[in-house]
Amino acid sequence: MAIHFTVNGTPVASAAPQGTPLLWVLREELKLTGTKYGCGAGQCGACMVHVEGGRTFSCLTPVESVAGKRITTIEGLSPGRLNALQRAWLAESVPQCGYCQSGQLMSAAALLAANPRPTRDDIKDHMSTNVCRCGTYPRIVRAIERAAKEGQS
Amino acid sequence: MNVTRREFMVGVAGLGFSILLDGCAGARSTQGGAGLASEPRRGARTVNAWASLGSDGTIYIVNPAVEMGQGSQTALPRIVAEEMDADWARVVIVPAAPSDKIYGNPGFRGLMYTAGSATITGYWDVARTYGAQVRRVLMENAAREWKVPLSELSTEPNTVVHAKSGRRMSYGEIAQIAELPAVAPEIKPEELKKPADYRLIGKDVMRVELPSKVNGSAQYSIDVQLPGMLYGAVLRAPVEGAAPLAIDDREARAISGVLTIVRLPFGVGVIAETPWAAFSAKDALKVKWDRSAHAFGHDSEKAVDLYAAAARELSHAGKPWDNVGDAPGALRSAAQVYEAQYVCDYTYHAQMEPLNSVASVSPSGDSCEIWCGTQSQTMAVAAVAKALGIPQEKVKLNLTLLGGGFGRRGHRDEEFVVDSVLLSREVKRPVKMLWTREDDVQNGRFRPLSVHYLRAGLDGAGRIIAWQHRVACDEITAFQDPVRYKGGGERDFLAMAGSELRTYDIANRLAEQLPQQTGIRTSSLRGIGFGPNKFATEAFLDEIAVRRGLDPVELRLALLKNTPRGQAVMREVAAMADYRRPRPGRGLGISFVDYSGTMVAAVAEVSVDKKSGAIHVHDFWLALDPGIAVHPDNVIAQTESSIIYGLGLTLSERISFKEGVVQQHNIRDYGVPRMGDIPEMHIKLVATPNRPTGAGQMATPIVAPAISAAVFAASGVRVRHTPFLPERVLRALA
Predict the structure, then answer these.
(1) What's the predicted TM-score (pTM) here?
(2) Tell me: the pLDDT tens digits for B545-578?
(3) A21 touches chain B (CB under 8 A)
(4) What number is the ipTM of this complex?
């Protein structure tokens, strides 16, 4: 039985068997490959998406659990234009290999939505869910601070 | 390094100066900077070197390096563009075809191989010469058209100028009338631009692929989608050389979506309609392995003692790596001899993208197309051709971005690429082969376990006159790349590099390897031998300084008396850190590394929690001189990156083995650093007008010795075994 939900404002249906992580439905069924597979265990944050506005490890989320819910992926974070976070990410030249950055941005967006003026400790605490093996952490901090300062739109 | 004859010949043969009648529709320009395309729309067949020109003024520059976040996809074409006097906004970067002959890195044994921080430095002469050749051809054409002497012409970005008459012609206009010489013009080194005239080199610019990395559109091999594509997973034997004896796949086959299970020489492959079905089936396999492989006996805990015994048994000469003067003789006659032992555990790359590849083998098996992120395009093509028994021309490579490399993706057998090829051949359909993170750890190829036994001999005046460094470790190069190993005099450079003390004024030096035959899968890893070897060397120097009551900075400055650039970064970092100001409750440690010609000095400030044994790194200062910094902010970014990488290797990351089997499984139990673990970093780029040298990993090896010295200053105990886990610190404190 198909599972219905909304991704980036578009209603979708998935026939994936129960227990299939949302991550693989997004990536391979819906071809939204900006959301990345990194660990499959909620340990790295590369798969971070928003479910009903809250950040969620899509690798740990069975697809049936999002029936009827609104999902946002990196592709839907700010369609057609870059938002303040993405602009800050470029201004600070954050990405290196770039693989983790969708997840970093989705985590950061959730942070600023809940806490528009985070302290440095708030940032470090919130972003500790997301691993960047290239070590872009100091630039991520700067980019979040820049986006917070310049406003979120 | 001068332009070698080979490079020049390549330059002559390869001035692939094709005129494109229209531009490239696929080109994507980024905010006034250069764009990217998979190939020029026309002329893709004819471009066989570094630059071509569209009649619309688009300049196509070929990039032979892979992009894994280090930025050479931008920096290397910038060098070509500089000498061409190209308008960066009109540049479109296209990937080089896999050919060592045309695109091999002269600084990396002529291979198309992105590693060793060798891209910019290795291609420096070639890239500039190619760029200058194109500019010269354009000027010669303008001279002919205007009937003026070549010497009266100059260039501005994308434009040839005749100042006397005020005439100007754009590169695009010239492209339409250009006559191409049969032989490319010779460019003498003195005809290349002087650093003072650079417009692009030394200036910051947005890396070309960056916009794709903030909106999810960047394409890694894991993102490739093909019509009719299936998904593959592979259960590899727990140790190298083991084969499946018996496979019970009843449960696996019963999983919905599983199409077939394949016995492979080294494991079992699963092909399914979805990744999740493939993973589930792989997990459901029950395999009995042939236990005869040597590595099954390996226990990393016990190995430390075995390696230490080998390193300390002086009657057994090691395999010499570096031998200057007479170190054993000088040690015998020294007024004072110090010794110490250091250990480095196995470590894992943990690149963010678990290894994967996509292959489409033709139904008859006589050709193949692959999509992968490899550090060597030509090795990938060769490995695939070999696996299928077909000519290399029958393998089409589609190079993608790499979700991190760090030395893991350049093994001669390119096993993670061949995996998808074997599965695709089986089902005659495209297959995306995915290793899970657990597979990536369990199938890991690691920086080896190493035990370092060092002896230093001092004369009556307290000067170091003799140095011996014996490294007992698993071999790397012979496993990772038997071809380069045999071709390079069977020297294990991936393990031993950095044990030679090139810049230190020590008259008698001997570095030797005691290779340990364990059968464990090993690999180059960011920093290669410099990581363990500089840890041992620099930590030992700090011990000697303390025991002799010497200032660690003064000791380094004395050893660097013939290396003024090394002294300069030492002095710089000591000033940056205000090194002589006491920090109550904290300790400072200083260290120096010369790596691929780049000079690096660093200071760590730490405190040690004596209850838990945890080391807290508060600040990290670093000064580096990489010569000319082609892309300065990117050098800083790579330095931040390589410090953080070194931090993980120093404090938390380790792989251990029991019965030959890797004991870790994922990101967390391996111990990759997170944002909260990062000190305040203060980096100073001391660029000098010297040939550019490495920038991609220079700081990684300096972190462990700086922290170990700082831990001693803060707590009075030496930590000599990386990673400096809290329990190890507690043991030292006890």
Answers:
(1) 0.95
(2) 999 999 999 999 999 999 999 999 999 999 999 9
(3) yes
(4) 0.98
- Quick one: A36 and A96 in the same domain? no
* Domain end call among B398, B413, B434: B434
pLDDT digits (tens, 9 = 90+) for B429-445: 999 999 999 999 999 99
Length of chain A (residues): 153
CB contact under 8 A, A134 and B642: no
A63 to chain B, any CB pair closer than 8 A? The answer is no
**What are the distances in angstroms from CA B179 to CA B81, B85, B138, B141?**
21, 19, 9, 7
**In chain A, helix, strand, coil percent, each to 5?**
40, 15, 40
**Closest partner CB to B214 (pick from A19, A105, A125):** A105
CATH at B719: 3.30.365.10
The count of domains in chain A is: 2
B493, B494, B499, B503: CA torsion to nearest 10: 80
User: Is B325 inside a domain boundary?
Assistant: yes
**Which one of B218, B225, B354 has the shortest CB-CB distance to A98?**
B218
Tell me, yes or no, if B25 comes closer than 8 A to chain A by beta carbon. no
Residues 79-118 on A with a CB inside 8 Å of B are 82, 86, 89-90, 93-102, 105
Using a CB-CB cut-off of 8 Å, the residues of chain A touching B225 are 28, 31, 33
Q: Is the pLDDT of residue B351 over 70?
A: yes
**Shortest alpha-carbon distance between residue A135 and chain B (Å):** 5
Domain that holds residue A96: 84-150
